[in-house]
Write a structure and sequence with these properties.
This protein has 305 residues and is mainly α. It is built from 16 helices and no strands. The protein has 2 domains: 14-167, Tetracycline Repressor, domain 2 (Orthogonal Bundle), CATH 1.10.357; 170-305. Helix 3 runs parallel beside helix 6 and helix 9 packs antiparallel against helix 10.
């Protein structure tokens, strides 16, 4: 761990640097999927309680991000994509990030228990532990299955939102989990294909590093096939309906076709055209998840009317 004195003389940390430690982009996904899980649940919550629940889930997600940046500072300093983060850039000391992550974790779990229920709070505590310890400290540096197993951490928020409203788990919340869980690997593997040097330099055993780029392309297509049935199955549950099914059918067809194109790509041709197909697939993956959960919201609103 870097000595706190190493940051003497570095630019003074600004409020935005501490916000950046919380990974606000990732947090926005956590907030949105948790909100959808809470909203579509078959139990009405008081609007203020619902707002507080989503707020504390977001705080827990931010705490996970701070703990991840604390532990991964050595990797972030090597990777081009992450060199500008507050710790490798020298604006925030690692002990500060650790203290922030631990403090926010405690506050988020305690307040969620008081605002919603202790089952949801325990679920949030487990999610923080899973992301910070199981994924960040263990899986990420030890196995090419890091993003596969570790992806569960990002898939828990809609289940936590559902648990805030219902106090439990159901087939609907499990399928929302599965939607994110099976989406995560092709999403990150597409990124790894065109950010090819970062993981090599950092020594992170991403699939592109351990099994090669051709194998990664095959895995992306395979996971797009595995993902589709779970996404469509969700449409036949109590939270689904024709609007969601129509959106899911189109998105999964596009996702499978995109995975097929990536699998058939020649690496030399991909490098010559600047990995345009891979970058388009990565962007598609962002819309894919957002639009699935947005469709659940719209379906719920239409059903309520």
């Amino acid at each position: 761990m870097a000595d706190i004195h190493a940051y003497e003389g570095a630019p003074e940390a600004q409020f935005g640097d501490y916000v950046a430690l919380l990974k606000p982009r990732v947090m926005s996904l956590v907030v949105f999927t948790a909100f959808v899980g809470l909203w579509v649940a078959p139990v009405d919550m008081h609007p203020f309680v619902a707002f507080c629940s989503v707020l504390f889930i977001a705080l827990g997600g931010g705490a996970s991000g701070a703990l991840n940046m604390w532990y991964d500072a050595d990797i972030d300093a090597v990777m081009h994509r992450t060199q500008g983060r507050p710790i490798p850039a020298g604006r925030v000391a690692r002990p500060e990030a650790l203290a922030l992550g631990v403090a926010l974790s405690g506050v988020a779990v305690l307040m969620l228990g008081l605002a919603a229920n202790w089952f949801a709070a325990g679920f949030l505590a487990f999610t923080i532990f899973f992301y910070a310890v199981i994924y960040t400290m263990w899986l990420k540096r030890s196995t090419p299955q890091n993003i596969v197993i570790g992806g569960a951490a990002g898939a828990f928020p809609p289940m936590i939102g559902w648990a805030c409203a219902t106090g439990g788990i159901s087939i609907e919340s499990l399928l929302m989990f599965a939607l994110i869980f099976f989406w995560t690997p092709p999403h990150f593997w597409a990124l790894a294909l065109f950010m090819k040097e970062d993981y090599h330099k950092a020594g992170v055993p991403m699939l592109t590093v351990t099994h090669g780029r051709a194998a990664t392309r095959r895995h992306i297509f395979a996971y797009s096939l595995v993902l589709a049935p779970f996404a469509l199955w969700l449409g036949f549950t109590s939270v689904g309906g024709p609007i969601y099914l129509a959106v899911a059918a189109v998105l999964n067809l596009l996702f499978i076709l995109g995975g097929w194109r990536i699998m058939r790509r020649d690496e030399l041709a991909a490098e010559q055209d600047g990995y345009t197909v891979e970058k388009r697939y990565f962007r598609l993956s962002l819309y894919y998840l957002f639009l699935h959960f947005l469709a659940l919201l719209v379906q719920s609103w239409v059903g309520a009317w």
